Amino acid sequence: MSSTPAAAPVQTPLRSYICIACGYVYHEAEGWPADGIAPGTRWEDVPDTWTCPDCGVTKDDFELLQD
Q: What single string gives the DSSP state of each residue in 13-67?
């Protein structure tokens, strides 16, 4: 009997988001430990109450930073 290995789950690359108000960039790979957001935290997992550390706007004022 032949056994084929299970396919590894496809990982979405870590992304970055830019604050449209001030230009601060949130990098998922780095997180924001000062606010308790661990490195590797996906944008959708950042609390909705989080605000930009530079200018104080909410997550609604961030956009995906394209490569």
A: PP-EEEETTT--EEETTT-BGGGTB-TT--GGGS-TT-B-TTT--BGGGEEEPP-
